[in-house]
Amino acid sequence: MNFDQYIINCDIYICSCIDQLKADHRGLLSQSILGHLRNFVEHVSAKIYLAAGGVPAATEYETLRKANSYVMKCGNLNFIAKFHDLLQISASHYTFDPESSERLMLKYYEYLLRIKQYMKGRFGMELLHNLYLFPLNLDPAFKIYHEAIAYRIENQDLKNAVTHTGKFYIYKTKPIFVNDSIYYEVSFSRANEHASKFERLIAFTKYEITSTYAVDLRLVSTGISVFGVKMPISIIIDWEVAIRACELKNFAKILNISLPPNKNKEYTNLMAFIKQSGTSLPKLLTLPFDEFTQFIEYVKDGAAVHNLSAMLTECRSRIEKAGGNVLLYLLYRLNNKIIKKQYHSDACDLLSELYLNIKCVPFDRMPYKFSLVRHNPSIDDILASIPIEGHKHELLARHITVNTEHNGILYTSQEELIAYGDMQPLVDAYNANLYYKHKLENNNLQLECWNGYYYIQKYEDNVMKILQRLKELSSKGIFSYTHTVNSWLSKPGVAVDSDEKRKALKELFSNSRVALVYGAAGTGKSTFINYISRIFGDP
Q: How far is CA 177 from CA 99, 100, 214, 319, 495, in A?
């Protein structure tokens, strides 16, 4: 297995693709380059794994699997495993909206830059020579601002600095690139159930801080000067993973396990492992058995009681059963507010006797299509917590739902869905997994096909009801409507700015209770609607 040559071959192809990229960066999301990027990342992982003393497996596939597992558990290399996961998601045919695509491009660049720097420093390999051509679409006005922030981060005097600490939730981390170095803009707020988006703070750091769990941050207040203007900023100089005890306790209640409220040695070990590995609990719970056992032994090391490790072991035993997808998702963020909304005081027989609300069933069966109780998970969080394999039918239904709800397309053509392959098995799988209440006549969410177009029955039913109601309303006008308008027009002080509008006002609802007002910009649509409002508002 000549991994070096394979890496070089992939590098040549990727660099040629970067040369051809346009500013809209769609080329990098094409399936052809995604395959080469994925192979590139896998063989980079394999080279690192073997150089660290890893033993080649009997097959290349197994060696690549072991290599990916190895980098996932190494904190300084975990970004390679994250990049691999991201490429797997991108290759799943899921369509990202423009904002998500932009974030995706920033992540691609960040990970490729880190691979380039690591492989040069560790092995002397010159890879991705034209990465500077990568289309970031960054606002050049921010360049000086970011350079000032980077300088302050690298040169902040901490000896006499006044620092403050606190427990926070991280909402977003955005990479900043300055002279091939990576910094982060971090958005965060106090870790409690009452913080709103209006209370969020922003700080900058050179550390890649997890946005998955509550963290303890150590911050210093300082300032920068840009174009002679002084601006205050905050810098994060240290951090630790610090899941709230109430979050672990309330999650354990779902498993009917009682956890003590105090933080013991197992808690300290778990927080340290999450930080060092840079991974999440769903990833750790889905490790191969021998690797999961090593992880549990690490958590138990030096601890007198093993409540936390026992809970994690019990949780792992349930993730392949009904309710498992809910557990994986809740473990990804362990957000207390979300956990409490899913809990129920009685065990649910449809969710393997877990203490979950029965309304969690649709999400558990098809997490890529449905939501939890009073919580709508982001697609990013679902992708990060629940393996995408086996959920293609849900992605299909999600595609059609997004088309209907956001793009105004009730019927999605078969040509648009060609990437999903054979459609009928996916439609059958989706319909078979629907919760029975989602098959009822007044709430039928089944996928249907008509003449090569796919749609969800409930949406068609709703459109038909709306059309029928509009038809009924349009069958007759408002009694004495024209007389009312004429009376209004004859009043002192009423002035309509054109004969065309006067005529339209008189006829608008004379024969129908439905009317459409349309026209090019500046033709007086708003003015016309104002006249209608005044007519109906006149006592």
A: 19, 19, 26, 39, 60
